Give the backbone structure.
Amino acid sequence: MSRTELERTAREHLAEPPRITLARIVREASVASKDEAEFVRRLRGSGALVRPRFETGGQEAVVGYSVALRSRAGDTPIWFGGGKLAKDLTLPHLRQFWEVSKDDQRAAVAEWSAAKSVASGREALRGHPDDWRRAVAGVERSLERLRAIPVSDLGAWRGAAREAAGVFAAWSRRLEGNSPGPLAATADALARSAQSRPSEPTPEREAVRDFRGVAAIVAQSQLSRDPPIAWAMLINQMGRHFGLSLMRTPPGGVKYGQGAFRYLVGSDIALYDRFETNSVQELVPGERVHETRSLATMSNNLPHQAKHHRGRGQGPSRGIGR
């Protein structure tokens, strides 16, 4: 952490240094996005400043990027390349998890080159409150697949930690805003668990492919009076069951696994009670509440839902969760 960063953090009364906030913003966008163009649009939509780094001598190939927070005091923004945020947030690394056809590549270059987004996609949709139930089912499917993965498969477990970090980052930005709390701390701990050395297995997202849709739902879906019920269930699933799964990995396998587990369980305890005892208006002030049917029986229906969706492999079946 540079002196300039620390001074800016103190001068602008920020809750944390900008690079930590930016790492979560980038991680959320990368996990929720299907392709690189969507990733760029999500970054811009978050309010972060974004600029590409083109291959030397041309404007047809993007080889890196930088992001910055807008300065509250009018100072010059402090820019960070993806690799300065985390080893797994470089553009070449992120591209391993996106669709990369020729059309996707052309669309990505067009988005990077534009002063503002040239098109809109999944990130612009406002999902229905029912999406939250599909998110619960999607997490349950992922947990079922994780239970079948050997503890020695470090690529799969690091990939799971990476994707889960994106879900918690999205949740933190929406619920905690500029005051990072247990959701942000959980995202950061999981992100540390996802890091690997060049000689080690590359993280894989296949087992938790549903988390992409879950992250999009958490970031975008409308709120009814009932989402806290779904939130409590998601926290229970990801806090207890996913956290315990991380603990199964061998010592030194998934870095900081025990720390991630402590944050997950701590979030579970603190947030489960908060979600059960507070209204949506109290949890997310200022957001409109969509009137919809009650989800009070959701917990009783979950096993049936998980079985009904099992094996589809494409995440939540409709809307932004796809």
In short: The chain has 14 helices and three strands. Residues 154-175 form the longest helix (22 residues).
